[in-house]
Amino acid sequence: MTRVPPLTQPATGRRSRGGTLTDRLVDARVPRDLHAFIAGLPKAELHVHHVGSASPRIVSALAARHPDSKVPTDPEALVDYFTFTDFAHFIDVYLSVVDLIRTPEDVRLLTYEVARDLARQQVRYAELTITPFSSTRRGIEAGAFMAAIEDARKAAEAEFGTVLRWCFDIPGEAGLEAAEETALLATDDRVRPEGLVSFGLGGPEIGVPRPQFKPYFDRAIAAGLHSVPHAGETTGPETVWDALTHLRAERIGHGTSSARDPKLLAHLAEHRIPLEVCPTSNIATRAVRTIDEHPIKEFAKAGVVVTINSDDPPMFGTDLNNEYAVAARLLDLDERGLADLAKNAVDASFLDEPGKARIAAEIDTYTADWLAP
Ligand SMILES: Nc1ncnc2c1ncn2[C@@H]1O[C@H](CCC(=O)c2cccc(C(=O)O)c2)[C@@H](O)[C@H]1O
Ligand SMILES: [Zn+2]
C-alpha cells in the first residue's frame, strides 16, 4: 500500500505566480481569533467531491503510482495546474485527476486520506459526492469499488471519529448511459453501499437539461435516497426550478443564480430547501466574478437556509475552515453566527436525529466554552 505522509502544511497559502492561490481567491480580512474559533468548531460538510478532495499529497502519491499520467507530481506545480480559465477547463483538469484512480486500492487510499483531511478540520460528519460511473467505466469492478469506499468509511470512523456518508452523482454531460449506470449502482441491493444516503447530478449544466434525468431520480428516491442535484451553478435560476420540479431536490448544490429570481428565493425560504454554498469554488470556476459579489448575502437576507461547503477544496486552494472564514466576512458573523451556520449544515444533513443532536450539542458546548469569560 502506498503510504501518504500526514499533512504538515495547511491546504491554503501555497505560493504561485502573483501571490498565493488563496491570496488571489480570498482576502482574509477575518480576525485571527475568529480563524482559531473556526478551526476548532465541530462541523458538517455536505457538498464535497471525492476526487475533488484529493490534496496535493494524495495527488502526488497517486501520480507517482501512475507515472504515465499528465498530472504533475510536484505539489508546487499543482498550484498552476489547478488554476482554471473557466468551468469547462476545470472539468478537463478534474477528469485528468479522475484518470489517476485506477484500482480499488487507489479508491481506498483516496477515500481514507480525504477523511483524514476532514477530521483535521474538526469535520464530524461529511456527505462525500462520488461519481461511481467514472470509475466503473475505467474498468474498476463495481463490487470492488463499493468494498473500497466502505472499507475506508469504516476505518475513518474508527480511527478519526469522522462519519462519512455517500452521495452518488450522475456526471450529466456523460449522458443517459451514465445516468442508467449510476441509478443501477445506487439502487441494486447487491452493490449499493451501506453508507449511501443521496443521489446527485454534477458536471456542466449548459446543454445538459435537468428534466431528462427525472426517471433516474424517481428510481433513486423510490429506493429511499435523498435528491441533491447541482443546479444554478453555471446556468440561470430556471435550472434550479427544474431541479425542484423534475428532480424533487431536497437541497440544491450551489444554486448561485437563485439570487436573480426573487420568487425562487421566496420559494426556497418558505420550503426550507437549503443551498449548499461553496463561495471559493464559484470564484475559481468563474461562476461569480469576485468574492465580494458572491450572492450569499442575498440568500441570507431572503431567509434561505445557507450551508457552507468546500466543493473541490485542494483544486480551489481552500478548505472548509477557509470557507467559513469567507462566510464570516461576507455575512459579518461573530462566533455565535458561525456556530449557527455550522448548525444549519448539521440540520440539513441526512444524518439520523441522535447523530444530529450529538453534533449540535458539541457545537453549543464548544461555543459556550470559547465565549466564557
Ligand atoms: N463544482 C462542480 N460542479 C459540477 N460538478 C462538479 C463540480 N466539482 C466536481 N464536480 C464533478 O465533476 C463531475 C463531472 C464529470 C463529467 O462531467 C464527465 C463527463 C464525461 C465523462 C466523464 C467520465 O468520467 O468519463 C465525466 C461531476 O459528476 C461532479 O461529481
Ligand atoms: Zn459540486
From TrEMBL:
InterPro entries: A_deaminase_dom, Ado/ade_deaminase, Metal_Hydrolase
NCBIfam families: aden_deam, PRK09358.3-1
Matches recorded under Pfam families: A_deaminase
Family according to the record: Belongs to the metallo-dependent hydrolases superfamily. Adenosine and AMP deaminases family.
CDD domains for the chain: ADA (cd01320)
Stored Gene3D superfamilies: Metal-dependent hydrolases
Sequence ranges assigned to domain Adenosine deaminase in this UniProt record: 42-365
Organism of derivation: Streptomyces muensis
Pathway membership, UniProt: Quinol/quinone metabolism; menaquinone biosynthesis
The protein's name in its UniProt record: Aminodeoxyfutalosine deaminase
Domain of life: Bacteria
E.C. designation(s): 3.5.4.40
Gene Ontology MF: a single term: hydrolase activity, acting on carbon-nitrogen (but not peptide) bonds, in cyclic amidines
CC cofactor: Zn(2+)
UniProt GO BP: menaquinone biosynthetic process
Catalyzed reactions: 6-amino-6-deoxyfutalosine + H2O + H(+) = futalosine + NH4(+)
Keywords from the named record: Hydrolase, Menaquinone biosynthesis, Metal-binding, Zinc
The protein's enzyme class: hydrolase
